[in-house]
Amino acid sequence: MSALVPLICTQVPALVLQLGITLNLRAPWNVATCVTVIVVCLTCIQHAKTNILFVDYFIGMAISGIAMDAIHMTLLVRPLHIFRHQEQTQSAHELPWPKRFIWAAQLCGSPRGVGWNHQVKNLTEHSAKSRQEFVLSRLTSAARHFMWFDLAQFYIKHNPAYKSAAAFASQNFTRRILACSGYLVFYYCMGVIIHSLIMAFAVSCTSSKPSSWPDFFGKWEDAYTIRRFWGRTWHQFLRRFLTPFGKKMASFLGFKPGTNGSSYTQLYTAFFISGIAHVGGDAVLNSSRLGVSFPFFIYQALAITLEDMVIAAARRAGVTETKWTRKMGYVWVACWFIVTATPWVTAVGVAGVEGGGAALPSKFFPPSLCDVLVKSIGI
Questions:
Q1: Do both 308 and 342 map to the same domain?
Q2: Are residues 214 and 67 both part of a single domain?
Q3: pLDDT tier, 378 (very low <50, low <70, confident <90, very high otherwise)
Q4: Distance, C-alpha 317 to centroid of its chain
Q5: Which side of the chain, N or C, has fewer Cβ within a 10 Å radius?
Q6: 330, 125, 296: which is closest to 228 by C-alpha?
Q7: Band of residue 255 on the pLDDT scale cut at 50, 70, 90
Q8: Cα dist. 352→43, 122, 163, 176, 283 in Å?
Q9: For residue 169, what is the enclosing H or E element?
């Protein structure tokens, strides 16, 4: 299969959704538009495989995310009427069709709503005072994360457990923790590197402002509870449609805004929909193992519920937040993800290898710097 096919499969659903947004259709035609986008997504998922595990998972998740966004954009809201860019001077539904299409492309291309009236909360703002300082900080960040990326790449390439599903699954828990951590570090650092380089290019070579480019991830020091990890530290790229789904479900069940019923309905709905979005990654990796990602996300909602109960009980007992309670929180969050992320990554990795994929195909990845260093000193 041509390498262009997976790329096309990621773009076609987005283009169909953008077209649907520009048409500004009411019922029942908005339902027809939604169904059309979902059918296109399902078709593209079946032809998007590259046999590179992390690429396949990302592509599947991106396509299923578009399907979820289609439900949001066609059935839950009227985008042309409620979304507005900060520099926009007239309502989008008043624009001529070509400009509406460009507007829709910009809307879909900014899932966190940066610079829009629906920008998600808790995005990290940069302290850089000039374009040059911003570009330098992004290049420095890319270089710093590349060192960890290269180390993770070296570990993955030389660990035989990544070569077969049976070898990976048969490792003891400690080795699986290391193997899964290596893959997560690789995936995380690659995302930060690519995003940092795009930020540096956009600000240095275009009129784009540094304020238009918050970091890919939030601050790790904010992650002293599981709720804060998902709400502040993680990337927030799905929040645009997760929040409306949660609010609609809470309203449907009759819970008033601000109540515990509304809050926890939104919480469980968000992780349920997020789980569905990640099942798209399962589908591209190995359709016979569909759903292996889903339990991980439901566990997060359960853990946050338990966490809230413990924090509320501690506050009633007179415990206040200090640096020591935060340190306990970091330990709790780390232990939780060791227990839950390790089986998740194991299940996804095993499913991908069984489906014919490879962790890091040598033909796509040149030798790492660690490989060069090891050979140069004769180890």
A1: yes
A2: no
A3: low
A4: 37
A5: C
A6: 330
A7: very high
A8: 20, 34, 11, 16, 10
A9: helix 165-169
Report the helix count and the strand count for the chain, using DSSP H and E.
14, 0
CA 272 to chain centroid: 15
Query: Do 274 and 323 lie in a common domain?
Result: yes
With beta carbons less than 8 A apart as the criterion, state whether 28 and 36 touch: no
d(CA 186, CA 177): 14
Q: How far apart are the first and last CA of the chain?
A: 39
Tens digit of pLDDT for each residue in 137-157? Answer: 999 999 999 999 999 999 988
Contact between 193 and 132 under an 8 Å Cβ cutoff? The reply is no
Pair 97, 139 in one domain: no
What sign for the dihedral angle of Cα 339, 341, 347, 349? Answer: negative
Look at residue 369 and tell me if it is in a domain. no
87 within some domain? yes
Residues 191 and 102 occupy one common structural domain: no
**204 and 63, same structural domain?**
no
Of 29, 217, 198, the residue nearest 123 (C-alpha): 217
Closest CA to 184 of 296, 47, 298: 296
Q: Is the pTM of this model over 0.85?
A: yes
How confident is the model over 90-134, as pLDDT tens digits?
Answer: 899 999 999 999 999 999 999 999 999 999 888 887 777 789 999
Same structural domain, 68 and 186: no
302 and 162 in a single domain? The answer is yes
**b/e 232-267 (16+ beta carbons within 10 angstroms → b):** bbebbbbbbbbbbbbbbbbeeeebeeeeeebebbbb
Structural domain total, the chain: 2
Burial label for 10, CB within 10 Å (0-12, 13-18, 19+), is middle
Range of the domain at 24: 4-108
242, part of any domain:
yes
| Cis, peptide link before residue 343, omega less than 30° from 0 | no
